[in-house]
Design brief:
This protein has 404 residues and is of the alpha/beta class. It contains 16 helices and ten strands. The strands form two sheets. Strands 3-2-1-4-5 form a five-stranded parallel sheet, with helices on both faces. Strand 4, helix 9 and strand 5 form a beta-alpha-beta unit. It starts with a helix and ends with a helix. The relative contact order is 0.10.
Length: 404
């Protein structure tokens, strides 16, 4: 005979079981005065069903814990914040004009009627997916790690489109908890500042230019067919000049040709190249690489692979480039000096999740092999202006230290 106290305790246990576990599984805990008589076959079938459902609940619980562990930290200043537009992350398939009310209303009606159907993956999808894989690896090493990738979906879309975007995020198993839907206005620059964005990917070239002018790392992506790059690694490929480096050397090439460019590199071989728009993002990758490679308790190679694919020549202009990358603490997995040869075949062998370049011809070459490519507009005037501001800032800091 079960006591009232014991019965109450058992009832509490039954009530605490999530709804995912069926009434059949609850019956395992719930006492019965006259247990039913079952045949051997029925017992085996019931046991198998119970085990399957309990296993399903365990899988659901594991997935829930994984989602909780991948929640973004509360302090955005400690994370590497990647803002990506909905048209880059997903293939939204519809272009519309925000300034034309009838066109927008038709778009919104169509989205709401079909909001339970997810968007298919877009050009930045595999890159964003790979960032989540790195986050899992970082949390295995240090469950309290705060410096990890935080994805922000930053879109021009109306708030009502948010349901379809959330459906798409959950359907594809992405971990994106921060979302900014501006209802047609540009997020540049105020929301890039507010979200402390480290890299901004969008399909609007004008916004990329504006973001770069404001000092943010940014690149433009177009709709394209992208190969499926599965696995636990994150492979990022960069061009050098006007991407990681400033346009300093590019300017000498444009003004005086290859001879002037080579002479400039020779004259400045012991001087670091001025920084370009994506240097800070590459350095963030370097810091995360060190978290894997310097950890003593877990013998694990870093899943973050950084590749350099440059049109520079090795003997004529490679030494200064390598010295600069080394000084910046950027850990290069591979570097390819192509001396002007097409980049597509090399990228096809590397299979990066994303490739950054300033030249449209190299972007097209990469895309022809199904490589996700992002263009950093080559605005030499902007690059040189930025380099001068860096020099002034360093000179000011130096003079301040001297005075103290």
């Amino acid at each position: 005979m079960t006591s009232r106290r014991s019965k109450r305790k058992i009832d509490d246990q039954v009530d605490s079981i999530p709804e995912e576990v069926s009434a059949t599984s609850k019956a395992i805990i719930q006492p019965s005065a006259t247990p039913p008589t079952l045949s051997s076959a029925s017992l085996n079938s019931s046991s198998s069903t119970q085990n399957d459902k309990i296993q399903a609940f365990a899988t659901h619980k594991s997935s829930t814990l994984d989602t909780l562990s991948l929640q973004p930290g509360r302090d955005p200043t400690k994370a590497v914040n990647i803002a990506v537009s909905s048209s880059c992350l997903f293939n939204t398939g519809i272009d519309y004009d925000w300034t034309t009310e009838p066109t927008f209303n038709q778009y919104l009606d169509k989205i709401i009627k079909d909001e339970t159907t997810p968007f298919p993956p877009g050009s930045a999808f595999t890159f964003i997916q790979a960032l989540s894989n790195v986050n899992r690896g970082l949390l295995k090493i240090n469950p309290e790690e705060q410096e990890r990738f935080n994805i922000i979906l930053m879109s021009h879309n109306h708030a009502h489109v948010g349901i379809k975007l959330i459906t798409s995020i959950n359907s594809h198993g992405l971990h994106i908890e921060r979302m900014c839907l501006t209802g047609g206005s540009s997020p540049v620059p105020h929301y890039l500042h507010a979200y402390n964005v480290s890299l901004f990917l969008t399909s609007y070239p004008g916004e990329v230019e504006q973001a770069l002018e404001c000092g943010f790392a940014a690149a433009a992506m177009t709709k394209q067919s992208v190969r499926d790059c599965t696995g636990e690694e994150l492979r990022v490929a960069f061009d050098l000049d006007a991407v990681l480096f400033s346009a300093e050397s590019e300017l000498h090439y444009k003004e005086g040709g290859l001879r002037a460019f080579f002479q400039h590199e020779k004259d400045n071989i012991d001087s670091l190249v001025e920084e370009g728009p994506l240097k800070s993002f590459a350095q963030a990758l370097g810091r995360m690489q060190q978290k894997f490679e310097s950890h003593k308790d877990i013998v694990q190679k870093s899943p973050i692979k950084v590749y350099i694919v440059t049109a520079r020549s090795a003997a004529s202009s490679g030494e200064r480039a390598i010295k600069t990358l080394r000084a910046w603490g950027i850990h290069i997995t591979e570097i390819h000096f192509l001396a002007g040869a097409p980049k597509g075949p090399i990228l096809n062998a590397i299979k990066p999740h994303i490739f950054f370049d300033d030249q449209r011809s190299h972007i097209v070459s990469a895309q022809s092999y199904g490589i996700s490519a992002a263009q950093v507009p080559n605005n030499i005037e902007r690059q040189m202006k930025h380099s001068q501001s860096v020099k002034v800032s360093k000179a000011w800091d130096s003079s301040s230290v001297t005075k103290q």
